[in-house]
Amino acid sequence: MEGSAGSTQLALIVIDMINTYDHEDAELLVPSVRRVVPVLAELIDRARKTDVPVIYANDNFGLWRSHHGELVSTALDRPHSDLIEPIRPDDESLFVVKARHSVFYDTPLAYLLSRLGAEQVVLSGQVTEQCVLYSALDAHIRHLGVTVPRDAVASIHPHLASAALEMMQRNMGARITTAKEIDFDRPDTGAPASPQDGSAHTQAR
Predict the structure, then answer these.
(1) Which position among 20, 79, 134, 200 has the lowest Cβ density within 10 Å, counted as fewest Cβ atoms?
(2) Are 23 and 133 in contact (CB under 8 A)?
(3) Residues 68-96 pLDDT 10s
């Protein structure tokens, strides 16, 4: 990691997508995840091809003896493995295990991003109105630029997701866009937007 400091300005964060979907509200979440997975898979692939770090920040579901390999294996063994396989971590992926909503809360993510030289993050995954929202706030207060592709985040309640995206844009200066609009070759992809910029992009899909 020492040799990678300052090597990039942008990182793609994949939030809580290694999931067994046997928890409360899963039946409401899964249809949204099914729409998101192909988009996210393409986004991850483009990030990898441009050497942008892909960091999986994932809940450990209270399994304090687990590691990321075990979390992936467990998810792949469950009925919704088709939602995991297209976006599974590869050998170059980085992994941060979290225990609460924000990807920054009591995790080494902020330090990892600083070692990578990343000043901007693209937040993807689930759930828009919960973990993505709280992670965007924590990124903002750490002076990180935030981009959220609205078609690469999944929700339980679409109306709350729409409100969350608007909050991220208006209150946190996040850029709300689509996955296809993200250009990993441009260092300003995650630059904060002005509060008025892109207000038409706040609708969850």
Answers:
(1) 200
(2) no
(3) 666 777 766 667 788 889 999 998 999 99
